[in-house]
Amino acid sequence: MVLDGLEESEGTSGGDSADTEIEEVLAEGLHDTRFTPAERRRVMERLLPEGDRHSLLRFFIMQVLSVTIAVMGLTANSAAVVIGAMLIAPLMTPIVGFAAATALGLPRRMVRSSIQVLVAVVVSIGLAALLAAWQSNFELSSEILSRTSPDARDLIVAIAAGAAGAYAVAREDLSSSLPGVAVAVALVPPLATVGVVIEAGRLDLASGAMLLFLANMVAIIITSMVVFFATGVVPTLRLAARHRVITGVSVALVAAFFAVGIPLTTRSVAASKSAQTEAEVRGVVSDWLGGRSLEILELTIDGDEVTLDLAGPDEPPRPFLLARDLVGIVGPDPVVDVRWLQVATGTASADDAPAQSLTLRERIGPAVLDWFSEQGDGGRYELTGAELNGSSLDLDVVGPEAPIPTDDLTRQLAEVLGRPVTVAVRWIPVLDVNSGQLSPEEEATRITGDWIGPRTSVSLVGVRVTEADVIVDLAAVGDPLGLSRLNDALEHQFAGRDVTVRLTSLESAPVTGTVTGVDVAELG
């Protein structure tokens, strides 16, 4: 039905009318010497083909094949396959044809080309969604995600590619450049991406991919019209005779250009600002670490919240200092969360291989228990998991404080396992809030004492518990880290009461602010 409708618009009677329009263009072009009559006829036949049933069928067959290849390349994260889809995609032909029909003031041809493009877009998105549903277990690869966040650079590429494509069509000696234009402008991959992410339930990403396609299409049409005017594809007499039709459609196209250009420019500005902010934050973090043996695993900036994942044997400085240095970069009141994965390394050799009949936890258990005993109250620590991957040994430990790995522990574990190992400790902090029948003040005192542990830099000044409030006063040298853990434990135990932890610095004045920090080996 779609093909019949498209053919009827250029049917028997319509075909005669269309041929007459073409002949009028050729006749008016006799006065424009920039093209010979034979060259102008060749350009007209290329830009405005007859469009019978068979040519339309061939167009949609190639479009379906192109979309199929594009979807397979996108879901397989294969750039080479996606480029192959670009090379065989026929969608640029009707888009450039629409630009030519608009520049020449041919309404019938404009309608025919626009219907062809619209049907191709709908079919492409639907087919892509079906192919994505058929695969079901695909992931949103980098090839997919790269087409969901367009910016002004994509618009500039589309403008240049559209101009190159139109000029190559107008000049037969440049037709070899058309495959490169097809790769640069990339019309089918964004459409395929729209269908794929819709099937994945990510409508937010679909809007970005659709914006990329619309930007490419509008840029191609406008730049193609400009090239057709400049090169003489549109005869001067034709431009003068049809200027009202051409002007009206051109104004609409310019409006569409700004409609897609403004959000793309906004995205570019936001991306540039975000990259600049991240670079500044990384510089501050580097200064804050001060040469400590720590690796930045991940840095996330969300408004005025900064999350920093570190790994290494050295303990990081206080997050309060980092937050202070970030004032003015991420906001006036930054919130910093530092997560530290403690890592220690060591080597050892063993003359006898360890007993293979024992499990990993049974083999390393005695060494870990000795290590727990060195932590102060070692009985309150528990080894909940151990995993050995090659030379990397990961330990999951539950306890009241971050246990400190030592070289002795690493050497002992290496001797037990009979190989060099790298030990990484993942700590899950636990405060016991179910201790039995104690008064509220005793309960709050016990929880606070558990949190303080053997630290000498923090001391409990006083506790006051009422029907509505729990107030804990602490004194500390500097800003103790992990304060939110104490607050969470108190809120859990005294649900329904307002919990306030007041901190007085032993160095200067009472410490206030909204900065949070965790100086623990915390995963999950």
Based on CA atoms alone, the radius of gyration comes out at: 35 Å
Nearest-integer average pLDDT: 75
Q: Could you give the count of β-strands?
A: 9
In the CATH hierarchy, the third-tier topology of the largest domain is known as Glycerol uptake facilitator protein
Assess the beta-strand content as a share of residues.
Answer: 5-15%
Outline: elongated
For the largest beta-sheet, the strand count, sense and barrel status come to: 6 strands, mixed
What is the domain total for the residues?
Answer: 3
Q: From the coordinates shown, what is the CATH architecture of the largest domain? A: Up-down Bundle
What structural class should be given to the helix and strand makeup? alpha/beta
What is the number of helices? 19
SSE topology string: HHHHHHHHHHHHHHEEHEHEEHEHEEHE
CATH class of the largest domain: Mainly Alpha
Q: What are the low-pLDDT stretches, counting only 5+ consecutive residues below 50?
A: 1-17, 347-355, 431-436, 508-524
